[in-house]
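Chain particulars:
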Amino acid sequence: MYLIVAKYADDAERKRIDYAVERWKAVAGVEKPDGVPILFKGENVADFVEDMYSRLSKENVSVYSLNDVLFEIEKEEISIETTLSGDLETISKFLGFIMAKQKGVLITETEFERIYEVSTRKGKADVSINLTDGGRVRILISGYGDAIGLIREKIKSEIRYFKEV
C-alpha cells in the first residue's frame, strides 16, 4: 500500500487527479481516504495516536507505517519534423494558432523557439516549437503517459490540413 500526496494548483488539476483516481479505482484499489490525512514525522507517534483516540472513536483513526519511495520514471519525448511553405511570420502565426487551439500556455519564448504547456484529458505535456529558415519546423513533445501521443496526433492533423489548403 502506498500513500501518494498529489498537490494541485487549481481546480482543473484537482479534477484531473479525481479522474485518475476514478480510472484506477477498480484496477488497483485506488481510493481517496476519508478524513484528514496526517503525516507524522516525529518519534512519539503512539502518544499522538492516543491523543487522537481521546478526541475521536478508535474506529475512526487508522495508522499506517510509510517509507519514502522514489520512482525513476523518465519523461517521454516524441518529435514532429516537417517543412511548411510560406514566409516565417505566417508559419509562426499558424503554429501559434495550433497551440491556442490546444489551449497551450506559452511558458517561454526566444527568437527561434517557443515552449508551451498543453493540458488534455489524458494529462499534460510540454511542447517546444523550433522554426528555422526555409520553413523547417521541429516540434518536441515531452511528458508522461498518453498525453504526448494525443497532442502529437492533434498537431499532425492540423499540419496536414495546413499543407492541403
Remarks:
- The chain has two domains: 1-72, 76-164.
